[in-house]
Write a structure and sequence with these properties.
Blueprint (H helix, E strand, L loop, with lengths): L4 H6 L2 H8 L4 H7 L4 H8 L1 H8 L8 E12 L2 E11 L6 E3 L4 E2 L6 H6 L1 E6 L2 E5 L4 E5 L4 E4 L12 E12 L4 E13 L5 E12 L4 E4 L17 E4 L2 E5 L3 E6 L5 E5 L9 E7 L2 E7 L12 E7 L8 E8 L3 E8 L3 E6 L3 E6 L5 E7 L6 E6 L15 E3 L1
Antiparallel strand pairs: 1-2, 1-25, 2-3, 2-4, 5-6, 6-7, 7-8, 8-26, 9-10, 10-11, 11-12, 13-14, 14-15, 15-16, 17-18, 18-19, 19-20, 21-22, 22-23, 23-24
Length: 388
């Protein structure tokens, strides 16, 4: 967008604000260089929040796709692809060049990593050891410091699950990590001795342990796309329940799954029609029994009310390896068993394989809209912020 600076100077500030809210982020970044006033406005918390919460439609949504390719034995290359839809069609076009993701190069990382967000515009890519926070619009990222807490002597630490969300009370982003300490007994069997919850706050650049956790956690399934941040709370798929952690109160609770889903093997969490949604799929390999190949999509109509689950869709015989996201409220994105990205239209039952592939189980997707959210820099000794 081209606009002479002299004309802009004559416009009232509220008019300039309305204009800036309609300009793509790439152009807004250039406007920062026009004048000190524009730089101050575009960096202000007020404008960033207005821009983040502006009225948008599904046409303003973009897709961040993470996938990996094998380069050598136990060595992988992981990339981000930034994609957009073309009108109402279900194919995807790149909006930036692909970006090589550092620190995510081994088998453990590409199968057990999690892509979480967007959370107030920011997204986290996480595995057992590494957390990368980034803004896909400004292409700014920060590698967070590892937890300083070590396992007691003679114990093994096992990370059960990870989460990333926003605490609206203290106005800061948090990373949560649940782990357990394991010890071999005298017969050589592994025993769980203790469970532990750690919190990292980005703004103050500090790890701490929760000291009020006195509950036994359910079995948590660390599988792709089995966690999500929603309504100020982080959610994980667990045995028969969804384990929830409120980012502000730092208290855990459960949401029961629908009874018909208790015996279903695989589950994913997505957002559909702005509601928490559970995808239940029974098998990752084809079966001769059509009932075993059914996929069910359940919507929680009233948040935190387990009795309000409603089955929205039943889908037959899709070659799903991993459900990834629901886009435009009707397009289910998933990776098939051959490693390709596919899209299924929930309204028309049409399914299409896209010309995008990666190692099986390595794909992760999040749907985001453009934003200017700044990654908290923490203290002077914090890990630095970088640009892609």
């Amino acid at each position: 967008m081209k606009m002479p600076h002299g004309i802009m100077k004559k416009l009232p500030e509220d008019v300039i604000l309305c204009i800036f809210l309609r300009i793509p982020v790439k152009s807004l970044m250039r406007f920062k260089c026009v004048s000190k006033n524009y730089y101050t406005l575009l960096q202000s918390t007020t404008f960033i929040n207005l821009h983040l919460n502006r009225t948008t439609t599904v046409k303003d949504e973009f897709i961040l796709l993470k996938r990996s390719f094998k380069e050598d034995i136990n060595q992988y290359k992981t990339i981000f692809s930034f994609l957009s839809g073309d009108g109402d069609h279900d194919y995807l076009n790149p909006i930036f060049s692909d970006f090589d993701v550092p620190n995510m190069t081994d088998t453990q990382s590409i199968i057990f990593d999690q892509l979480v967000g967007p959370c107030h515009g920011l997204i986290a890519l996480m595995d057992d050891f590494t957390t990368i926070i980034f803004n896909p619009s400004t292409r700014i990222f920060r590698l967070l410091p590892p937890s300083p807490f070590d396992r007691p002597k003679g114990y093994h630490r096992s990370i059960k699950c990870l989460g990333f969300g926003f605490d609206s009370v203290v106005n800061d982003y948090k990373v949560v990590r649940i782990s357990e300490f394991l010890k071999d007994d005298c017969y050589g069997y592994v025993q769980v001795e203790e469970e532990n919850v750690e919190i990292y706050e980005l703004g103050i650049d500090c790890w701490r342990e929760l000291d009020h956790v006195n509950q036994q956690f359910p079995t948590i399934f660390w599988v792709p796309c089995s966690q999500i941040f929603y309504m100020g709370t982080f959610h994980w798929i667990a045995q028969r329940v969804i384990l929830c952690f409120n980012m502000s109160t730092e208290i855990f609770h459960h949401i029961r799954m629908p009874d018909p889903c208790h015996n279903i093997r695989n589950h994913s969490l997505v957002i559909l029609n702005e509601s928490l949604t559970l995808i239940c799929y029974r098998s990752v390999t084809p079966t001769s029994d059509p009932i075993e190949d059914l996929i069910e999509i359940w919507i929680l109509k009233d948040y935190d009310v387990s009795e309000s689950w409603v089955k929205k869709y039943t889908i037959r015989s899709l070659p799903i390896k991993i459900p990834l996201a629901i886009w435009k409220d009707n397009l289910l994105l998933f990776q098939n068993r051959s490693g390709y990205l596919m899209v299924y239209d929930l309204r028309t039952d049409n399914v299409k394989e896209l010309n995008i592939h990666g190692c099986p189980e390595s794909m992760r997707v999040t749907v985001y809209k453009e934003n200017l959210t700044i990654i908290p820099s923490g203290s002077e000794s914090s890990t630095p912020v970088h640009k892609f």
